[in-house]
Predict the 3D structure of the following.
Amino acid sequence: MHTPFPITVRRAAALALALATVPALAAKTKADADAGLPVKPTVADIVKASSPADWRPLDPDNTLYMELPGGRVVIELAPDFAPQNVANIKLLAREHYYDGQSVVRSQDNYVAQWGDADEAHPKPLKTARDKVPGEFTVPIKNVRHFTALPERDGYAPQVGIAHGFPAGRDPKAGRTWLAHCYGMVGVGRDVENDSGNGTSLYAVTGHAPRHLDRNITVVGRVVSGMALLSTLPRGHEAMGFYGANEVHPPITSVRLAADVPEAERSHLEVMRTDTATYQAAVEAQRNRGGPWNKYAAGYVELCNVPLPVREQAK
Amino acid sequence: MHTPFPITVRRAAALALALATVPALAAKTKADADAGLPVKPTVADIVKASSPADWRPLDPDNTLYMELPGGRVVIELAPDFAPQNVANIKLLAREHYYDGQSVVRSQDNYVAQWGDADEAHPKPLKTARDKVPGEFTVPIKNVRHFTALPERDGYAPQVGIAHGFPAGRDPKAGRTWLAHCYGMVGVGRDVENDSGNGTSLYAVTGHAPRHLDRNITVVGRVVSGMALLSTLPRGHEAMGFYGANEVHPPITSVRLAADVPEAERSHLEVMRTDTATYQAAVEAQRNRGGPWNKYAAGYVELCNVPLPVREQAK
């Protein structure tokens, strides 16, 4: 979750601002604010005040666990947007294709990419397909629901959140696609559209490279453990590839959550994006209140939209 | 420099695409391309073909070296945009204020922030001021030059590059400000506008938090060594602060380049942003060519604009 907290000089001040409830802040505001922004609930306030119906658990059939030595990266897959690629990635996970592979590239302000470091002797496939058609866009009707943002966007005629994923749409063409925001996961490919198959995946670890939208298949989003990828040492060769003498961060395994015993699963839930609560969270980010904020943007860029994730209550 | 290279399955393919010259790619395109995008020079091609006059060295009087155990972070200061805050930061550097301080916060997809970890016993100031007015925006006339982008932006009436820095402008109000893109450096503050003084600084390490624009003073940009900040372990307390028992990454020293012996300086140059060459680099990012790219965005978001940096030729 992107947590747009204020940047204060003192940690104590930051914590006070972040943890205070709105009524508590109200009194402070009258005395302190230099500008006239009204005090409003923050995204964190709205998360705190939400009801259980505002959340949905991750679907174990569309959740991947990538186990790294430092912990677990949880990826929510988006089959609506890439049915064939997601199906192949699930086959790859089920045949344990990724086990023992590694992160091969970490380029600052761009991506971490993982797969088979041994290009001369690629690991053979068992059940998965060697080539899968690129699913750079899909018909709008394929996607369950879409919460359109009123915001204008430079990269798409329309943007919004589709069942928890940031997405663009072209209503005239009847097509939609996932946007390359921080944490989104895509399928590496060579020049031909169908040259990817999920054996090489990447996650965005920098400012959204939205020029990749509609150019490559996006299959999901990291919902937990993102720091395990974003803090990896950057590779020292061109484009952030690790050189032959650099450590390639190992992947212990990748499993579909449904294949993992219940006791070993992560129990995460994501905020539903088709609710009034969610609209309030987006609005809290679009027009942030005082007293720390002096100016409210009146706009929220697609990749700054909050997508809250939390542990399920026991 | 943001290097928007293709994400290929195979490293060899990525290198071939990145290193090929345009003529060499042209033949390949005819056979391989699925889409009809013309082959065009990339940003890297334009950097390679540039002339010495397309570059300017960093000004030692407005360049900071932050020395970390892992290497040097080079920050170009922007006195046009924050004259009083930049002046105070230079005083702080000259009185060795930052030496022995530490990074106190690393929040994923947001910022790394450094300063005095001991809030109970803050390090005393010698020559620097305790409070400096916030310089959230400045008069447009204060800024030497501005290369406007034709792109519409959600956070500002107008955007462009001001002498190497991404900036927003409000021509009606006659004000301009630096944008919170990846790598930009700002001044932490508490609630009051004048509560920052440069003793607490931060760099953006995630997707651009543009909602901070016009809310806080931005003083410059990391032009080299960004990975030393972006790969720091994330802090485990609220907002990415390091806990009492977590390592606070130490800062060896911060010096103004002008105060460092010539032999120990970094000799970097940045591409001038008021030239035809620079316009060509922006256009290469706005409308990327084939054969890997299948769709050209026709748009470049402010924080995806290339800002090339390189070692000076000997």
Notes: The first strand of chain B starts at residue 55 and ends at 57. Residues 120 and 255 of chain B are 26 Å apart (CA to CA). Chain B has a mean pLDDT of 92.
